[in-house]
Amino acid sequence: MSLSNGRCAVVAALLATLAGSTALAAEKYEVAVIRWAPEDIYFNGVQRGQEMERDRIMKEDGVEIEFRVFGANDVSAQRNALDAQISRGVDGVLMVPWRGEAMRGVVNQLHDDGIPVVISNNLVPGAKQTFVAFDNEAAGRKGGEALVKRLNELRGADWAKAGGVIIELRCVITASGDIDRHNGYRSALDPIVAENPGVQIEVNEAGCDGGKARKAVDDIIARHGPEQILAVISIDGTMGVGGAVPAFQAQGMLVPPDDPKHIPIITIDGTMPELEALERGHIDTVMVQPAFGEGIMSMRLLYDMMKSGKMLEAPAEPQKLYADGDELWMPVEVLPSDQFDGPWYRIQTYGVPHDVSPKDPRNWAVQMSEQGGAQPEGAN
Questions:
Q1: SS3 of 193, please?
Q2: Does 353 sit behind a cis peptide bond, omega within 30 degrees of 0 on the bond before it?
Q3: Fold category of 136-281 in CATH
Q4: What class does CATH assign to 7-134+290-351+358-370?
Q5: Which sequence spans correspond to the domains of the chain?
Q6: How many CB atoms lie under 10 A from the CB of residue 234?
Q7: pLDDT 10s digits, 119-152
Q8: Residues 266, 146: contact at Cβ < 8 Å?
Q9: Which helix (H) or strand (E) holds 170?
Protein backbone atom coordinates (compact mmCIF):
# COMPACT_ATOMS: atom_id res chain seq x y z
CA MET A 1 0.00 0.00 0.00
CA SER A 2 1.27 3.47 -0.78
CA LEU A 3 0.04 6.80 0.53
CA SER A 4 0.17 9.30 -2.30
CA ASN A 5 0.31 13.09 -2.50
CA GLY A 6 3.20 13.90 -0.26
CA ARG A 7 2.78 11.10 2.26
CA CYS A 8 6.24 11.60 3.71
CA ALA A 9 5.56 15.28 4.33
CA VAL A 10 2.25 14.49 5.98
CA VAL A 11 3.82 11.84 8.20
CA ALA A 12 6.61 14.18 9.23
CA ALA A 13 4.11 16.90 10.10
CA LEU A 14 2.04 14.45 12.13
CA LEU A 15 4.99 13.22 14.14
CA ALA A 16 6.18 16.74 14.82
CA THR A 17 2.71 17.76 15.97
CA LEU A 18 2.16 14.72 18.17
CA ALA A 19 5.59 14.39 19.71
CA GLY A 20 6.94 17.89 19.93
CA SER A 21 10.21 16.24 20.80
CA THR A 22 13.69 16.11 19.33
CA ALA A 23 14.58 12.88 21.13
CA LEU A 24 16.83 10.61 19.11
CA ALA A 25 15.52 7.20 18.14
CA ALA A 26 17.05 4.10 19.66
CA GLU A 27 18.80 1.73 17.26
CA LYS A 28 16.43 -1.17 17.90
CA TYR A 29 12.94 -1.59 19.34
CA GLU A 30 11.24 -4.77 20.53
CA VAL A 31 7.46 -4.69 20.06
CA ALA A 32 4.99 -7.19 21.47
CA VAL A 33 2.05 -7.72 19.10
CA ILE A 34 -0.92 -9.31 20.89
CA ARG A 35 -3.82 -9.96 18.55
CA TRP A 36 -6.69 -12.30 17.72
CA ALA A 37 -6.11 -15.77 16.26
CA PRO A 38 -3.84 -16.26 13.22
CA GLU A 39 -6.72 -17.48 11.04
CA ASP A 40 -8.63 -14.21 11.47
CA ILE A 41 -8.53 -12.53 8.06
CA TYR A 42 -9.26 -9.04 9.35
CA PHE A 43 -6.50 -9.02 11.95
CA ASN A 44 -4.07 -10.43 9.42
CA GLY A 45 -4.88 -7.25 7.49
CA VAL A 46 -4.24 -5.10 10.56
CA GLN A 47 -0.90 -6.79 11.14
CA ARG A 48 0.00 -6.35 7.48
CA GLY A 49 -0.63 -2.62 7.87
CA GLN A 50 1.57 -2.56 10.98
CA GLU A 51 4.35 -4.36 9.12
CA MET A 52 4.11 -1.96 6.18
CA GLU A 53 4.39 1.05 8.47
CA ARG A 54 7.21 -0.56 10.44
CA ASP A 55 9.13 -1.21 7.21
CA ARG A 56 8.66 2.40 6.12
CA ILE A 57 9.92 3.67 9.48
CA MET A 58 12.96 1.38 9.45
CA LYS A 59 13.88 2.54 5.96
CA GLU A 60 13.40 6.25 6.66
CA ASP A 61 14.80 6.39 10.22
CA GLY A 62 17.48 3.71 9.93
CA VAL A 63 16.27 1.78 12.99
CA GLU A 64 15.37 -1.85 13.62
CA ILE A 65 11.92 -2.82 14.89
CA GLU A 66 11.28 -6.44 15.77
CA PHE A 67 7.74 -7.76 16.13
CA ARG A 68 7.03 -10.61 18.54
CA VAL A 69 3.60 -11.77 17.46
CA PHE A 70 1.12 -13.82 19.45
CA GLY A 71 -2.48 -14.44 18.41
CA ALA A 72 -5.33 -16.17 20.24
CA ASN A 73 -9.04 -15.73 20.77
CA ASP A 74 -8.61 -16.44 24.46
CA VAL A 75 -8.16 -14.11 27.43
CA SER A 76 -5.77 -16.27 29.43
CA ALA A 77 -3.59 -17.13 26.45
CA GLN A 78 -3.25 -13.48 25.46
CA ARG A 79 -2.46 -12.41 29.01
CA ASN A 80 0.12 -15.18 29.55
CA ALA A 81 1.85 -14.31 26.27
CA LEU A 82 1.94 -10.61 27.14
CA ASP A 83 3.32 -11.31 30.62
CA ALA A 84 6.05 -13.49 29.11
CA GLN A 85 7.01 -10.80 26.62
CA ILE A 86 7.06 -8.10 29.30
CA SER A 87 9.37 -10.27 31.39
CA ARG A 88 11.66 -10.65 28.39
CA GLY A 89 11.64 -6.90 27.85
CA VAL A 90 9.66 -4.81 25.38
CA ASP A 91 9.83 -1.21 24.19
CA GLY A 92 6.17 -1.05 23.16
CA VAL A 93 2.98 -3.06 22.77
CA LEU A 94 0.44 -3.29 19.96
CA MET A 95 -2.69 -5.00 21.26
CA VAL A 96 -6.09 -6.15 20.11
CA PRO A 97 -7.57 -7.65 23.30
CA TRP A 98 -10.02 -10.54 23.08
CA ARG A 99 -11.73 -9.12 26.17
CA GLY A 100 -10.61 -5.60 26.96
CA GLU A 101 -11.82 -5.57 30.54
CA ALA A 102 -9.38 -8.39 31.38
CA MET A 103 -6.40 -6.26 30.31
CA ARG A 104 -7.13 -3.16 32.38
CA GLY A 105 -4.57 -3.83 35.11
CA VAL A 106 -1.66 -4.73 32.86
CA VAL A 107 -2.30 -1.83 30.46
CA ASN A 108 -2.35 0.66 33.32
CA GLN A 109 0.82 -0.86 34.74
CA LEU A 110 2.59 -0.61 31.39
CA HIS A 111 1.59 3.06 31.18
CA ASP A 112 2.87 3.72 34.69
CA ASP A 113 6.14 1.97 33.80
CA GLY A 114 6.56 4.23 30.76
CA ILE A 115 6.07 1.46 28.19
CA PRO A 116 3.80 2.77 25.41
CA VAL A 117 0.78 0.73 24.39
CA VAL A 118 -1.53 1.24 21.43
CA ILE A 119 -4.83 -0.59 21.69
CA SER A 120 -6.78 -1.05 18.49
CA ASN A 121 -10.22 -2.34 17.56
CA ASN A 122 -11.49 -3.24 21.06
CA LEU A 123 -10.70 -0.75 23.80
CA VAL A 124 -9.66 -1.53 27.36
CA PRO A 125 -12.34 0.25 29.42
CA GLY A 126 -11.03 2.46 32.20
CA ALA A 127 -7.37 2.08 31.24
CA LYS A 128 -4.81 4.70 30.20
CA GLN A 129 -4.30 4.09 26.50
CA THR A 130 -3.90 5.35 22.98
CA PHE A 131 -6.74 3.83 20.98
CA VAL A 132 -7.12 3.35 17.21
CA ALA A 133 -10.40 2.21 15.68
CA PHE A 134 -13.10 3.24 13.29
CA ASP A 135 -16.54 4.23 14.57
CA ASN A 136 -18.17 0.85 15.16
CA GLU A 137 -21.51 2.37 16.08
CA ALA A 138 -21.61 4.46 12.90
CA ALA A 139 -20.80 1.35 10.85
CA GLY A 140 -23.63 -0.56 12.49
CA ARG A 141 -26.07 2.30 12.05
CA LYS A 142 -25.24 2.70 8.36
CA GLY A 143 -25.51 -1.05 7.90
CA GLY A 144 -28.91 -1.04 9.58
CA GLU A 145 -30.09 1.82 7.40
CA ALA A 146 -28.89 -0.05 4.31
CA LEU A 147 -30.88 -3.09 5.44
CA VAL A 148 -34.10 -1.10 5.86
CA LYS A 149 -33.63 0.39 2.40
CA ARG A 150 -33.00 -3.06 0.94
CA LEU A 151 -36.12 -4.54 2.55
CA ASN A 152 -38.16 -1.63 1.23
CA GLU A 153 -36.87 -2.40 -2.27
CA LEU A 154 -37.52 -6.13 -2.05
CA ARG A 155 -40.78 -6.32 -0.08
CA GLY A 156 -42.29 -2.88 -0.29
CA ALA A 157 -42.51 -0.08 2.25
CA ASP A 158 -45.00 -2.02 4.40
CA TRP A 159 -42.80 -5.10 4.84
CA ALA A 160 -42.69 -4.77 8.63
CA LYS A 161 -46.46 -5.06 8.98
CA ALA A 162 -46.29 -8.66 7.79
CA GLY A 163 -43.82 -9.57 10.57
CA GLY A 164 -40.88 -11.90 10.48
CA VAL A 165 -37.48 -12.58 12.03
CA ILE A 166 -34.23 -10.64 11.66
CA ILE A 167 -31.22 -12.69 12.76
CA GLU A 168 -28.44 -10.81 14.55
CA LEU A 169 -25.10 -12.63 14.82
CA ARG A 170 -22.82 -11.28 17.52
CA CYS A 171 -19.19 -12.11 18.31
CA VAL A 172 -18.37 -11.35 21.95
CA ILE A 173 -21.13 -9.41 23.63
CA THR A 174 -18.78 -7.79 26.19
CA ALA A 175 -16.31 -6.47 23.59
CA SER A 176 -16.53 -2.74 22.90
CA GLY A 177 -16.59 -3.15 19.11
CA ASP A 178 -19.35 -5.74 19.31
CA ILE A 179 -21.42 -3.58 21.65
CA ASP A 180 -21.07 -0.50 19.46
CA ARG A 181 -21.92 -2.32 16.22
CA HIS A 182 -24.94 -3.89 17.91
CA ASN A 183 -26.08 -0.50 19.17
CA GLY A 184 -25.62 0.96 15.70
CA TYR A 185 -27.62 -1.76 13.99
CA ARG A 186 -30.37 -1.52 16.57
CA SER A 187 -30.62 2.27 16.37
CA ALA A 188 -31.95 1.77 12.84
CA LEU A 189 -34.06 -1.32 13.54
CA ASP A 190 -35.50 -0.99 17.06
CA PRO A 191 -37.93 1.81 16.15
CA ILE A 192 -39.37 -0.44 13.43
CA VAL A 193 -39.67 -3.35 15.86
CA ALA A 194 -41.37 -1.10 18.42
CA GLU A 195 -44.01 -0.10 15.88
CA ASN A 196 -44.46 -3.60 14.44
CA PRO A 197 -44.74 -6.27 17.14
CA GLY A 198 -44.75 -9.00 14.48
CA VAL A 199 -41.09 -8.25 13.73
CA GLN A 200 -38.57 -9.78 16.11
CA ILE A 201 -34.80 -9.81 16.26
CA GLU A 202 -33.17 -13.07 17.34
CA VAL A 203 -29.69 -12.50 18.79
CA ASN A 204 -27.01 -15.18 18.89
CA GLU A 205 -23.44 -14.93 20.23
CA ALA A 206 -21.29 -17.06 17.94
CA GLY A 207 -17.77 -15.90 18.79
CA CYS A 208 -16.91 -14.63 15.29
CA ASP A 209 -17.00 -18.30 14.26
CA GLY A 210 -18.57 -19.29 10.94
CA GLY A 211 -19.42 -22.81 12.08
CA LYS A 212 -21.19 -21.62 15.23
CA ALA A 213 -23.03 -18.97 13.24
CA ARG A 214 -24.14 -21.60 10.70
CA LYS A 215 -25.64 -23.71 13.49
CA ALA A 216 -27.39 -20.69 15.00
CA VAL A 217 -28.97 -19.76 11.65
CA ASP A 218 -29.96 -23.38 10.99
CA ASP A 219 -31.68 -23.55 14.39
CA ILE A 220 -33.60 -20.31 13.82
CA ILE A 221 -34.76 -21.45 10.37
CA ALA A 222 -35.92 -24.76 11.87
CA ARG A 223 -37.91 -23.02 14.61
CA HIS A 224 -39.52 -20.28 12.54
CA GLY A 225 -39.57 -21.65 9.01
CA PRO A 226 -37.74 -20.24 5.97
CA GLU A 227 -40.62 -17.98 4.98
CA GLN A 228 -40.33 -16.03 8.26
CA ILE A 229 -36.67 -15.03 7.87
CA LEU A 230 -36.40 -11.38 6.83
CA ALA A 231 -32.66 -10.65 7.02
CA VAL A 232 -29.34 -11.22 8.76
CA ILE A 233 -27.20 -8.56 10.41
CA SER A 234 -23.74 -9.83 11.30
CA ILE A 235 -21.31 -8.10 13.65
CA ASP A 236 -18.45 -9.35 11.48
CA GLY A 237 -17.83 -10.81 8.03
CA THR A 238 -16.97 -14.37 9.03
CA MET A 239 -20.34 -15.14 10.58
CA GLY A 240 -22.24 -13.62 7.66
CA VAL A 241 -20.29 -15.28 4.85
CA GLY A 242 -19.28 -18.43 6.72
CA GLY A 243 -22.49 -18.90 8.68
CA ALA A 244 -25.59 -17.31 7.15
CA VAL A 245 -24.69 -17.87 3.48
CA PRO A 246 -24.10 -21.65 3.71
CA ALA A 247 -27.16 -22.06 5.96
CA PHE A 248 -29.35 -20.35 3.35
CA GLN A 249 -27.70 -22.31 0.55
CA ALA A 250 -28.45 -25.64 2.25
CA GLN A 251 -32.11 -24.67 2.64
CA GLY A 252 -32.55 -23.40 -0.93
CA MET A 253 -32.98 -19.87 0.44
CA LEU A 254 -30.08 -18.28 -1.44
CA VAL A 255 -31.75 -16.54 -4.37
CA PRO A 256 -30.57 -13.72 -6.69
CA PRO A 257 -30.51 -10.21 -5.22
CA ASP A 258 -33.25 -8.96 -7.57
CA ASP A 259 -35.67 -11.73 -6.51
CA PRO A 260 -38.30 -10.48 -4.01
CA LYS A 261 -37.60 -13.63 -1.97
CA HIS A 262 -33.97 -12.62 -1.55
CA ILE A 263 -32.97 -12.40 2.13
CA PRO A 264 -30.52 -9.51 2.72
CA ILE A 265 -27.32 -10.13 4.67
CA ILE A 266 -25.35 -7.18 6.07
CA THR A 267 -21.77 -7.58 7.34
CA ILE A 268 -19.02 -5.43 8.81
CA ASP A 269 -15.27 -5.83 8.11
CA GLY A 270 -14.55 -5.70 4.38
CA THR A 271 -12.54 -8.92 3.90
CA MET A 272 -12.07 -10.43 0.46
CA PRO A 273 -14.60 -13.25 1.15
CA GLU A 274 -17.18 -10.55 1.91
CA LEU A 275 -16.41 -8.58 -1.25
CA GLU A 276 -16.56 -11.77 -3.35
CA ALA A 277 -19.85 -12.83 -1.73
CA LEU A 278 -21.26 -9.38 -2.47
CA GLU A 279 -20.29 -9.66 -6.13
CA ARG A 280 -21.98 -13.09 -6.29
CA GLY A 281 -25.16 -11.56 -4.87
CA HIS A 282 -25.01 -13.64 -1.69
CA ILE A 283 -24.75 -10.66 0.66
CA ASP A 284 -25.97 -7.10 0.18
CA THR A 285 -23.88 -4.55 2.06
CA VAL A 286 -20.42 -4.56 3.58
CA MET A 287 -19.48 -1.79 5.98
CA VAL A 288 -15.69 -1.64 5.77
CA GLN A 289 -13.46 -1.60 8.82
CA PRO A 290 -10.17 -0.36 7.35
CA ALA A 291 -7.61 -2.95 8.45
CA PHE A 292 -4.62 -1.31 6.80
CA GLY A 293 -5.59 2.08 8.23
CA GLU A 294 -5.86 0.59 11.72
CA GLY A 295 -2.50 -1.11 11.35
CA ILE A 296 -0.67 1.88 9.88
CA MET A 297 -1.97 4.33 12.47
CA SER A 298 -1.38 2.04 15.46
CA MET A 299 2.25 1.40 14.47
CA ARG A 300 2.84 5.04 13.58
CA LEU A 301 1.61 6.21 16.97
CA LEU A 302 3.50 3.53 18.88
CA TYR A 303 6.76 4.48 17.18
CA ASP A 304 6.18 8.13 17.94
CA MET A 305 5.86 7.32 21.65
CA MET A 306 8.84 4.92 21.69
CA LYS A 307 11.01 7.46 19.88
CA SER A 308 9.99 10.52 21.90
CA GLY A 309 9.65 8.84 25.29
CA LYS A 310 6.34 10.66 25.76
CA MET A 311 2.85 9.23 26.06
CA LEU A 312 0.15 10.73 23.86
CA GLU A 313 -2.53 12.72 25.65
CA ALA A 314 -6.19 13.20 24.77
CA PRO A 315 -6.85 16.57 23.13
CA ALA A 316 -9.00 19.10 24.94
CA GLU A 317 -10.97 19.56 21.72
CA PRO A 318 -11.39 17.21 18.73
CA GLN A 319 -8.68 17.48 16.10
CA LYS A 320 -8.45 16.24 12.53
CA LEU A 321 -5.45 14.73 10.76
CA TYR A 322 -5.04 14.03 7.04
CA ALA A 323 -7.99 16.25 6.14
CA ASP A 324 -6.83 16.21 2.52
CA GLY A 325 -5.71 12.57 2.50
CA ASP A 326 -6.86 10.34 -0.34
CA GLU A 327 -7.07 7.05 1.56
CA LEU A 328 -10.58 5.78 2.26
CA TRP A 329 -9.82 5.63 6.01
CA MET A 330 -8.94 9.33 6.14
CA PRO A 331 -9.38 11.85 7.69
CA VAL A 332 -8.36 10.65 11.14
CA GLU A 333 -10.21 12.33 13.99
CA VAL A 334 -8.41 12.67 17.34
CA LEU A 335 -10.97 12.65 20.14
CA PRO A 336 -11.17 12.46 23.93
CA SER A 337 -13.14 9.50 25.28
CA ASP A 338 -15.46 9.06 28.23
CA GLN A 339 -14.54 5.34 28.47
CA PHE A 340 -10.78 5.60 29.00
CA ASP A 341 -7.98 8.06 29.72
CA GLY A 342 -6.25 8.93 26.46
CA PRO A 343 -6.81 9.84 22.81
CA TRP A 344 -9.00 7.97 20.33
CA TYR A 345 -7.67 8.11 16.77
CA ARG A 346 -10.85 7.45 14.83
CA ILE A 347 -10.44 6.29 11.25
CA GLN A 348 -13.32 6.34 8.77
CA THR A 349 -15.78 3.67 7.66
CA TYR A 350 -17.49 3.39 4.28
CA GLY A 351 -19.93 1.09 2.55
CA VAL A 352 -19.61 -1.32 -0.35
CA PRO A 353 -21.22 -1.10 -2.87
CA HIS A 354 -22.81 2.22 -1.81
CA ASP A 355 -19.67 4.34 -1.50
CA VAL A 356 -17.15 2.35 -3.55
CA SER A 357 -17.26 -0.79 -5.66
CA PRO A 358 -15.99 -4.17 -4.42
CA LYS A 359 -13.10 -3.93 -6.88
CA ASP A 360 -11.98 -0.45 -5.85
CA PRO A 361 -8.18 -0.73 -5.47
CA ARG A 362 -8.29 1.36 -2.31
CA ASN A 363 -10.13 -1.41 -0.42
CA TRP A 364 -7.66 -2.97 2.01
CA ALA A 365 -8.75 -6.49 1.04
CA VAL A 366 -8.06 -5.78 -2.63
CA GLN A 367 -4.63 -4.41 -1.77
CA MET A 368 -3.85 -7.43 0.39
CA SER A 369 -4.96 -9.76 -2.37
CA GLU A 370 -2.73 -7.97 -4.86
CA GLN A 371 0.18 -8.45 -2.48
CA GLY A 372 -0.34 -12.19 -2.83
CA GLY A 373 -2.66 -12.73 0.11
CA ALA A 374 0.14 -14.30 2.15
CA GLN A 375 -0.23 -14.24 5.91
CA PRO A 376 1.80 -11.66 7.82
CA GLU A 377 4.87 -12.68 9.74
CA GLY A 378 4.33 -14.87 12.78
CA ALA A 379 0.71 -15.55 11.80
CA ASN A 380 1.17 -19.16 10.68
A1: helix
A2: yes
A3: Rossmann fold (3.40.50)
A4: alpha beta
A5: 7-134+290-351+358-370, 136-281
A6: 31
A7: 999 999 999 999 999 999 999 999 999 999 999 9
A8: yes
A9: strand 164-170
